[in-house]
Amino acid sequence: MSSSRSNNRTWMIPGLGIALLVAIFLSPFASSNPDGLDRVSQDHKFVNKALKDTPAKKLPFYHLFNEYTLRGTPKPLATPLAGLAGTLVTFGLAWGVGKLVVRGQQSLPKDG
Amino acid sequence: MITGQMLDTILFYGSHLDIPTHLAMHIPDGFLSLPVSLVTWVIAISLIAFSLNRVNAGYQERTVPLMGVCAAFIFAAQMINFPIPGGTSGHLLGGTLAGVLLGPWAGSLVMAVVFIVQAVLFQDGGLTVLGANIVNMGLIGTFMGYYLYRTLRYSLGGDTWRAMSVSTVIAAWTSVFVASVVCALQLALSGTVPLPVALTAMAGWHVLIAIGEAFITLIAVGYIWRTRPDLLFDPPQRVLFSKDSE
Predict the structure, then answer these.
(1) Which residue of A has its CA nearest to B133?
(2) Nearest to B72 among A38, A67, A91 (CB)
(3) Structure confidence by residue, pLDDT tens digits, B96-105
(4) Less Cβ crowding at N or C end of chain B, within 10 Å?
(5) How far is B143 from chain A (nearest CA, A)?
(6) Chain B residue with minimal CA distance to A54?
(7) B60-69 pLDDT, tens per residue?
(8) Which residues contact B97 (CB under 8 A, 6 or more apart)?
């Protein structure tokens, strides 16, 4: 396990790569049928209880993304680009949270 | 065959969102009452605070990149709605997956990040009900799903492909089913829809959606089990690379 440190990093590339491929290339093929709760709220007539002017629409990000579409881009690219951006932001944020929270022993040569 | 109700729905979505929504089990603002929102916020914040402590005390630095990759994959996978017979769709929730990979503590932090990004950046799931969404779609998987997985796996022998796969499938399926029941309870307690209606409708669809959850979770966990089993929170005692013929 002498190269355990580099091993621990190299698996990340396929891992993040798969996530990005899914977000970019599969997202346009996502089913547009209403999903679970959505369908139930339509069938049982409480869909209109959802606020239209939600707090999230008052955030600056609403000028950038309209749901999973990047504003100002051609329709076929809007969702893949939103997926790309969202996946990278999520990756960075979760990494950052981990980095801040995990106390870690940096000078440990072999990690168990 | 377009009924008046369907037309209302189409007009409602068409005029405000332009594209089909991908709410999944993401509760929008307005579906939950203030008390239900508050209680679920308290549960979410307590469990996240508890998780922060546990990750701080017990995790090593090697977990950090896996948290990033796991969060990225779950975010991406949640965008992919798969069709369900009957004109509905579903997508991965990922709580059980995060719990199996990272353990319940780091897994819960990862799920919270995913739902925060979705609500803040993409208006997916209401900000006022974010606590409920984190509990339902994240923490039920990372805690209940994970402990169900662990209990089953070790009672089935622990380190075999069969024990891992059976327990992953059952835990992932159960976490989504339970999440839909909890969501129905929250809707009913909020006075949004009567309990029997909410329960039958939510549980009815999610019996099927949960099969997709079990399938995707097994593919992801199985892939890591075969390629880098040492990354798992509960790695097999002996690292077995050639169990294909099981």
Answers:
(1) A37
(2) A91
(3) 999 999 999 9
(4) N
(5) 18
(6) B29
(7) 998 999 999 9
(8) B70, B74, B141, B172, B216, B217, B220, B221
